[in-house]
């Protein structure tokens, strides 16, 4: 079930990450996706019944304390654009209240994004979009591209392709409870090297 109006259904928040965009970034994985890319790395983010429902203001209050340590926000999923109305409200507040850059991962193609009801309104608040379904047969894992069919769109001058190509392809984080999180565009890379 979709989150009620004025709220967002979120899978996970990572306060500080190095492998989800240039520099240190705060990352939000949205909960819920119907696009069904074969071989998706995050199937646990697909059900709209999972995750946690946040009000827009509650989510802002949870992440704003990280703004003095991270240079930007990365939105991933799940499919952020399947919660477009709440996302527009959230991003307009982020732009108004922080100096953060915004990177959006979406499974929709660039052309599909233009046709979504909230597509352009979301893009108005985003610096970089990485668009297109994940295709396991065209796996790439470079420059934040999970597969070769995906396209990158720089909507402001804040970043370049060289910035994306410097991003580490994986990282491992251990939280205060001892839980291990592995993320990045090629999360299995770290496991291949170390396990
Ligand atoms: S759009 Fe993303 S979350 Fe959805 S199925 Fe594709 S890779 Fe998985």
Automatic annotation (TrEMBL):
SUPFAM superfamilies: Radical SAM enzymes. It comes from the Bacteria. Its EC number is 1.97.1.-. Keywords: 4Fe-4S, Iron, Iron-sulfur, Metal-binding, Oxidoreductase, S-adenosyl-L-methionine. The keyword Ribonucleoprotein does not apply. Its cofactor is [4Fe-4S] cluster. The keyword Membrane does not apply. Pfam families: Fer4_12 (PF13353). Belongs to the organic radical-activating enzymes family. PANTHER family: ANAEROBIC RIBONUCLEOSIDE-TRIPHOSPHATE REDUCTASE-ACTIVATING PROTEIN, PYRUVATE FORMATE-LYASE-ACTIVATING ENZYME. Activation of anaerobic ribonucleoside-triphosphate reductase under anaerobic conditions by generation of an organic free radical, using S-adenosylmethionine and reduced flavodoxin as cosubstrates to produce 5'-deoxy-adenosine. This is Anaerobic ribonucleoside-triphosphate reductase-activating protein. It comes from Thermanaerothrix solaris.
């Amino acid at each position: 079930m979709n989150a009620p109006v004025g709220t967002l259904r979120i899978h996970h928040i990572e306060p500080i990450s190095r492998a989800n965009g240039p520099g240190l970034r705060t990352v939000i994985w949205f909960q819920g996706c119907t696009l069904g890319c074969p071989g998706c790395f995050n199937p646990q983010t697909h059900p709209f019944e999972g995750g946690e429902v946040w009000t827009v203001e509650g989510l802002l209050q949870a992440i704003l304390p990280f703004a003095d340590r991270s240079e930007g926000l990365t939105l991933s999923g799940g499919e952020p654009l399947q919660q477009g109305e709440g996302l527009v409200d959230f991003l307009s507040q982020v732009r108004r209240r922080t100096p953060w850059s915004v990177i959006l991962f979406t499974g929709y193609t660039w052309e599909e994004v233009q046709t979504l009801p909230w597509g352009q309104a979301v893009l108005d608040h985003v610096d970089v979009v990485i668009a297109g379904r994940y295709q396991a047969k065209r796996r790439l894992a470079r420059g934040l591209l999970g597969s070769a069919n995906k396209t990158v769109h720089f909507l402001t001058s804040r970043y370049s392709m060289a910035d994306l190509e410097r991003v580490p392809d994986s990282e491992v984080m251990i939280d205060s409870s001892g839980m291990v999180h592995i993320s990045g565009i090629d999360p299995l890379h770290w496991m291949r090297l170390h396990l």
